[in-house]
Amino acid sequence: MRRTVRETEESARRITRRGLLLGSAQLGFAGVLALRMRYMQVDQASQFQLLAEENRISIRLISPTRGRIFDRNGLVIAENEPTYKIVLVPEDTDDVADVIARVSSLVELDEDDLNRALANIDPNRPFDPVTIADRVSWQDVSRVAANAPALPGINTEVGQSRIYPQSELYAHVAGYVAKVNERNLSRYEDPPSVLNLPGFQYGQVGVESKYEDLLRGKAGAKRVEVNSANRVMRELDRREGQTGPDLQLTVDTDLQDYAFARLGEESASVVVMDLEHGDLLAIASAPSYDPNKFVHGISTADYAILRDNDHRPQASKTVQDAYPPGSTFKMVTALAALDAGLVAPDETTYCPGHMEVGGRKFHCWKRSGHGNVNLEQSLRHSCDVYYYDLALKVGIERIAAMARRLGLGDAHGVPMSAVTSGLVPDKLWKLRKHKQDWVIGDSVNASIGQGFVLTSPMQLAVMTARIATGRSISPRLVKRIGNVETPSRAGMDLGLNPNHLLQIHRGMYAVSNNRRGTAYKSRIIADGNRMAGKTGTAQVSSTVVDNKSVAWEKRDHALFVNFAPWDDPKIAVAVVVEHGGGGSVAAAPIARDVTLQALYKGDPPLEAYPKKDRARIKALQARLSRERKERQANRNSRA
User: Fold this and answer.
1) Which of 116, 202, 457, 564 is 20 to 30 A from 608, alpha carbon to alpha carbon?
2) How far is CA 249 from CA 33, 299, 415, in A?
3) Higher-confidence residue: 121 or 334?
4) Is the pLDDT of residue 51 over 50?
5) What band does 273 get if pLDDT is binned at 50, 70 and 90?
């Protein structure tokens, strides 16, 4: 059917409108694309350039150098040593097995380590280096380098690792570092990126742990160009890390070494505290262990030896363990009574060998009794009944308050691991802890350092230092951080009556210098260096035992505290010998010898000892000197 002219014209008009609409839409879309292209290529050019640059440029962290640790005289306790390793880049050799065989002819390779290394070769990333030998010697590195043309794909790398030249002397003090673990990372809400570096070493215990964030320093960085497979093509620039500041401790290595030698095979500890600034001159816990074995992972066999030793070499007995202080606590009870005005120095108490309290007999260590004793005599003879009587007069609240005033029940902020606060009990504590009321028998036990009372050797040294000086002196372990000396911890005046302190000093002097004193056999006779001390014997069970006839672990702990010179105090000393029996027999001789060593800064003259002891002391000094030299030679050879 033929269209009319009118129909044809109408159809043409419609097609033209549709074409215009479609053309306009296409032109508009092309305009939008053009504007978008302009926006992306011009306005956002710098952003896309940065994104492209980030894909091409990678930032890699550089491990910082760890700060060193020194003793008070500048002797190195912890330092860094270069470590060498041999690595293989699989893609740079045609035959991995052949090149490893060649390396094996030059360097002794551990089979297990080698198998682990070969298992880590990633076929998808053959350019990643794989360590086939770690901590090799410089001689091994030299041999590999000399044969480099015949060892395609083999390279040597140098890094740093921690080493402890003094070995066991500072294991409990400085501690050690080891590879970062989950426990370390859990300390941070957002762990520093440097901790993720392969093999990064982190402080695990002791000063190394407490000052980790400071000693670690700050990581450096390098910008490297990488390809699409993340392979490093070249290094663009580098910013070295910031070395951690060095730490100087207050401990004297010579005195620390002597203390260890003097403790011998005992499970024991000794703390020596300077009375000017509170410096810990020696803080030894025996037996000890070699911290170097932990740096790269201790073997199962070596760890089993430490774990199964009943003398607990890993325990830091000076600050971690808490013991009943025994009779060394009697000065606390006496000062509480004097301070409250409830006893006079010349007032006497009759000791028949026991006291009956609440229908129960509390015995004195001397079953026949001491007769009438005053304050000085009570300390000299260590009469228990005298202090039972004081406990009834003074009460536990005053005794506890004086104990805290003298530094007990406080961790004192010493940067070592697992530092205990000990325990100074009172009525509220027992009610909260045991849901029981305090009874008078508890006070009687506490008055002689038994019952609930617990103290560490360091706290006993602080107590003795405060009695000696009348100041709130506290222990200082870190003397200097970098070039800045840490504040003195000499403390302020405790507000105790000087006459009361003098009475205590006289009683402690009598302990060591009166013929009837419990520590008379361990006295110092050198004029100007005589010491004032106090023996202590702490029961480990609820019944009295004969220390000579029971197994070692059932014997009483032996304690001794002292300061010297008694009329011009310079140092305070605390010694605890686990299961040593009596304090006068086991602890006092050690304390006397360590005290003289500290005062003379070396072996004292034999004239400082009683005449009858000089032959034995001379032989002892010779043996200890020989043993110390042997240990130092062993430490030097390991270093």
Assistant:
1) 457
2) 71, 30, 11
3) 334
4) no
5) very high
Measured from the Cβ of residue 494, the count of other Cβ atoms closer than 10 Å reads: 18
Query: Can you read off the two tokens belonging to residue 126?
Result: 């053959």
Type and span of the H or E element at 96: helix 96-106
For residue 597, give every residue at least 6 positions away whose Cβ sits within 8 Å of its Cβ, in sequence order, or none.
255, 258, 259, 262, 603, 604
Helix (H) or strand (E) holding 77: strand 76-88
Chain Cα centroid distance, residue 340: 39
Who's near 429: CB < 8 A, 6+ residues apart? 423, 452
Average pLDDT of the chain is 88
The amino acid that residue 86 corresponds to is: I
User: How far is CA 565 from each of CA 314, 523, 593, rounded to the nearest angstrom?
Assistant: 34, 12, 14
For the record, the structure tokens of 215 come out as 């000693």
Distance CA 357, CA 352 (A): 14
Nearest to 132 by CA among 110, 102, 160: 110
* Tokens encoding 485: 């000396």
Q: Mapping DSSP to helix (H, G, I), strand (E, B) and coil, where does residue 484 land?
A: strand
Distance CA 165, CA 185 (A): 28
pLDDT value of position 208: 97
pTM given for the model? 0.85
Closest C-alpha to 202, from 215, 193, 190: 215
User: Who wins on pLDDT, 9 or 619?
Assistant: 619
| Residue 410 burial by Cβ neighbours in a 10 Å radius (0-12, 13-18, 19+) | middle
Name the residue among 412, 409, 443, 417 with its Cα closest to residue 322.
Answer: 409
Beta sheet of 557-564, edge-to-edge order = 280-286, 268-274, 571-577, 557-564, 532-538
With contact defined as beta carbons under 8 Å apart, do 65 and 217 qualify? yes
Q: In what order do the strands lie in the sheet with 220-226?
A: 57-62, 220-226, 232-239
Q: Using an 8 Å Cβ cutoff, are 64 and 218 in contact?
A: yes
Residue with the larger pLDDT of the pair 58 and 306: 306
Residue 131 has phi, psi (to 5 degrees) of -75, 125
pLDDT confidence tier of residue 6, bands split at 50, 70 and 90? low
Strand partners, 204: none
Using pLDDT thresholds of 50, 70 and 90, give the confidence band for residue 509.
Answer: very high
What H or E segment, with its residue span, contains residue 58?
A: strand 57-62
Nearest-angstrom CA–CA distance, 545 and 543: 6
CA distance 87 to 98: 15
Q: Helix (H) and strand (E) counts for the chain?
A: 21, 21
How far apart (Å, rounded) are the C-alpha atoms in residues 223 and 58? 6
What is the phi/psi pair of residue 65, to 5°? -85, 130
Which helix (DSSP H) or strand (DSSP E) does residue 575 occupy?
Answer: strand 571-577
Q: What is the mean pLDDT of residues 395-419?
A: 97
DSSP 191-256: --GGGGSTT-EEEEEHHHHHTHHHHT-B-EEEEEEE-TT--EEEEEEEEPPBPPPPEEES--HHHH
Residue 27 makes CB contacts below 8 A (sequence gap 6+) with none
Match 């004081």 to its residue by tokens: 390
| φ/ψ of residue 81, rounded to 5 | -125, 150
